[in-house]
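Ligand-bound model needed. shikimate-3-phosphate.
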Amino acid sequence: MNESQTPPKSIVLIGFMGSGKSTVGRELHQRLGYPLVDMDQVIEQRARKSIAAIFADEGEQVFRDRETSLLEELDDPTAPRRIISTGGGVIGREVNRALLRQLGYVVWLNAPMSVILDRTSKNRERPLLHTDDPAAKIAALMETRRPLYDEAAHLRVDTAGLDSKELATGILESARYFFTGHL
Ligand code: S3P
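Prediction:
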C-alpha cells in the first residue's frame, strides 16, 4: 500500500519523550471523538509489562520490532480515522517513517530542551534515560533525531508557551487544510 492508493486519514503525533504527545492526543481525541491509539500503551498491554521491563528483559530491538509491527497493523485502509500517539523513538527506522506518513497527517511536537528535561525527570518510566547524565543523553538523542522528526513530519509545532488546548486548536486548523487536499 502506498500514499497514492490510500489517502492518509489519521492524525499522528511524533516528538521527543516529554513533548506532550499523550496529552495533546487525549485533547484531540476528546474534540474529534476519533479513537485514540497510544502506541506505547498498546505495546505494554499486549506484552503485559511496562516498556522499562520490555527493554530490560528483551532488549531495545524487540521493542522496536513491536513498534514496527504495530504501525503495519495500524496501516489498515478499512480502519476508522484515529488519533495516533507514538513513542519518541519511532522515527528511528526508515520503514516506520514511511508508515507514519501513510497513516495520516504527521505532527511533530517540538518542545524545548528545558521542558523535556523537567517532564522526563518526574518519573523513571523511560529506560533510555536510566543513565548517570540524562541531560547529556537527551541532548545527544535530540541531535540525531531532529532531522528524522523533520523528515517524517508534515507539520512542526513549536510547543513553547502553549498548553494542550492551544496546541490542539492549531493542529486541527492545519489538519483541515491537509485533509481537504487529500479527499
Ligand atoms: C522512547 C520513548 C518512549 C518509549 C520508549 C522509548 C524513545 O515514549 O517509547 O521508552 O526512544 O524516545 P515517549 O516518547 O512517550 O516517552
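The longest strand covers residues 104-110.
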